[in-house]
């Protein structure tokens, strides 16, 4: 047996223990966006610090203004590239809790009707399960061979789901320590359950939250209806005016910096045979919305979008309350592509919102940071190594894909630390990340660990 | 001293005790719309039953499918009209609780900067303070003269703020017991702090609540944004399309049965000198919204309106959650005037909503009962008696007004029991009913009690 085969055999034999460790991490309620869960975020960071030190990666919890970072190193000046592995230990909120089939922080292995085994818990896929694939790969490598094949640094953050407010200052303050030859980022998905993928194109994002206010207090709709401004109506007007009848976003100049893909790229993607029916059918839908001259794969990878993630105003309880609320709220996110500038988009959005605010009303904006879209170089040499490693493990060519969601860290690594990122992940479309009943396939976890062993092995080669 | 002067003097001397009794009632958390407060609603009914029996009105708590009624009688076949006094002991919910300056169920007398004394509590004006004006008037009359000048029956309900689901069956089942010569209803306001009013025109109301659903679960906006329907956008489109740029409601046929007022009525109202600036200024506004060819007094009394009292969908917590919610909600109420038919308006609304539901979305309606508008006969003889009584107490002619809010009971009394209603109340525009920091002027309470003494005395005259 070659040394890599021994490492892989150890992983197979140790899988139950790997799962026990993952479950320990999944039980920690590290919801970063809600201040109530500050202590569990700290606890998750400390748990990871201990795990890394236990397997031979010297790690420490590093305080920030928000939730802490975990930084680890195992390096001895090996000839191959020094890689920085990135993941995040924080998770999304769990509401609406009543739609979960079990306690989101009580992980379990379940078997679906088709026999697929899945790990069910908040964070199973996003991103605790994913980051543990790398930790377990490193553990097996060191246990079996006494070392890692390349120098490895680790960065786990705890604010990915809440806009990463501490990340820029932390990267800036620790530039020398964290700058490596390249980054490995495990927060993405496969093409499908059988086909691995490397993401080479990431949309950016910019968000905003508005509070529209009118009267100085809630009003009785029998007395003031018709005469007083109703913030619910104003917010609804703002939302309704953001798209035209063809699904285009109406902000002036919004599409100016969108870049159309070269024909060879779209041709490659056409071959992937994206199954629109399955993509929408999995969530109970049939008819693609959106720009009606574009395909859902374009909506997902190469087109900008605007979504209202939350809106509220007035009475939400049981029964009727005849009230005109003093204020109403909405949360917006724009996905960005090509050269769209988050600041410019936010300015256009705010100008538009202000233009829809009538006399007697005011608007307040709750600022959100944005990040532009990114495209990696298709000719980047490590892409080939990644593709070979994944093909060896999965027996199929990796798809080179775009990505719908944002991973701002990739842009930060590029701009602040001068590093390209290899984005390899094992999530699947039906993992229900950010939703009730999040899961991660047991196969994703198992073969994910094995995939990282092969990637590290490939990277060490000349 | 005439007997009526003695009754009035007793009221003045007993005011502190009257307030103590009112405070006992205000402390009971009888929120009818929320099932959690079922027990306090029962408690309020039993408290009123005891009060009425104590003062010599034979009363009992009468069970319904929902919150109980309190019915009382004191009658001996007097020659004057037999009157039924109506009020409601239930109150509106108190949220948002953080905007209250004190516990809404811990009543207190406060003194405003201008020296006005006010009773602050949920229900102080709507309707516990108002109904207690009549109870205290009856108490003083019986205590001082040994009897009431006319036969009196009482009906207090506990579901006025939650659509009165038990009222129709109760009136139907107790038609003989409750049918009197006329009703006295105390749930309305004065023209201003110095000018009493009798309401002769009431708007109707019909409401509806919608739930718009799309995907079978919450979605990640990075994955499904642009492609999947977002119920927040659909609900916003529905709300935004309900009014045109001139503030007119767009439902087909909506204005068909609206009746314009005769010129003599509007001329009378013009003399009232409605102060738009003060009306809006009191709540921090300046610019009348609504149909831009109508005055705010028309919006309030003679024009139909449509207001969204609540809307919600998606994430409302702190920070960002990149979600497309599976569903979104909105609560609507329409104020009706003239001959507008609640059922017809609801049908037009539902047809409109359905026309805005795209493929892949569905809508569910949560049914709400409606009531048509009412106009009393300006030549009704008891109107003159009411006007004389009020002028004697307040030294000013009573204004004959319309009313913005709905009082469905008046229509029920007319249609089910064949009774006209004399609507006399002592609320003021700035009472903040249905809002935080609800209050009732001490003067309204005191002179309200005295006014009922004079009204009962007038009604007993030939």
From TrEMBL, chains A, B:
Secreted in keyword set: no
GO biological process, one term: proteolysis
Domain Peptidase M20 dimerisation: 203-359
Signal peptide: none
A molecular function (GO) term: metal ion binding
Keyword list, A-Z: Hydrolase, Metal-binding, Protease
Protein name as catalogued: Acetylornithine deacetylase/Succinyl-diaminopimelate desuccinylase
Lineage: Bacteria, Pseudomonadati, Pseudomonadota, Alphaproteobacteria, Hyphomicrobiales
């Amino acid at each position: 047996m070659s040394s890599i085969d021994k490492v892989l055999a150890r992983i197979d034999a140790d899988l139950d223990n790997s799962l026990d460790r993952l479950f320990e991490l999944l039980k920690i309620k590290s919801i970063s966006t809600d201040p109530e869960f500050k202590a569990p975020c700290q606890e998750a960071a400390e748990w990871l610090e201990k795990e890394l030190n236990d397997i031979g990666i010297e790690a420490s919890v590093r305080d920030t203004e928000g939730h802490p970072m975990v930084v680890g190193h195992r390096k001895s000046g090996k000839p191959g590239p020094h890689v920085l592995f990135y993941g995040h230990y924080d998770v999304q909120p769990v509401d609406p809790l009543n739609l979960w089939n079990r306690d989101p922080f009580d992980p379990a292995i379940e078997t679906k009707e088709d026999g697929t085994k899945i790990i069910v818990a908040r964070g199973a896929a996003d991103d605790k399960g994913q980051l543990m694939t790398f930790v377990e790969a490193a553990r097996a490598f060191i246990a079996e061979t006494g070392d890692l094949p390349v120098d490895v640094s680790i960065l786990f953050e705890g604010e990915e789901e809440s806009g990463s407010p501490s990340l820029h200052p932390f990267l800036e303050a620790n530039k020398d320590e964290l700058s490596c030859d390249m980054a490995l980022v495990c927060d993405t998905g496969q093409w499908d359950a059988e086909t691995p993928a490397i993401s080479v194109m990431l949309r950016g994002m910019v968000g905003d939250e508005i509070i529209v206010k009118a009267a100085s207090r809630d009003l009785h709709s029998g007395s003031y209806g018709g005469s007083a401004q109703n913030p619910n109506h104003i917010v609804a007007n703002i939302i309704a005016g953001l798209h035209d009848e063809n699904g285009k976003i109406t902000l002036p100049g919004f599409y100016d910096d969108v870049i159309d893909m070269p024909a060879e790229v779209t041709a490659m993607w056409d071959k992937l045979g994206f199954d629109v029916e399955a993509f929408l059918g999995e969530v109970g839908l049939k008819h693609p919305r959106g720009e009606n001259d574009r395909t859902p794969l374009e909506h997902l990878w190469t087109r900008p979008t605007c979504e209202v993630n939350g809106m509220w105003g007035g009475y939400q309880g049981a029964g009727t309350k005849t009230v005109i609320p003093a204020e109403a709220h909405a949360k917006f996110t724009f996905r960005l592509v090509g050269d769209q500038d988050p600041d410019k988009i936010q300015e256009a959005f705010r100008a538009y919102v202000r233009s829809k605010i009538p006399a007697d009303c005011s608007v307040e904006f709750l600022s959100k940071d944005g990040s532009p879209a990114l495209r990696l170089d298709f000719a980047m040499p490590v892409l080939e190594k990644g593709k070979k490693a994944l093909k060896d493990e999965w027996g199929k060519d990796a798809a080179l894909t775009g990505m719908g969601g944002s991973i701002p860290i990739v842009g930060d690594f590029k701009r602040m630390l001068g590093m390209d990122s290899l984005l390899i992940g094992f999530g699947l479309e039906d993992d229900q990340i950010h939703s009730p009943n999040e899961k991660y396939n047991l196969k994703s976890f198992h073969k994910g660990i094995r995939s990282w062993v092969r990637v590290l092995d490939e990277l060490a080669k000349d």
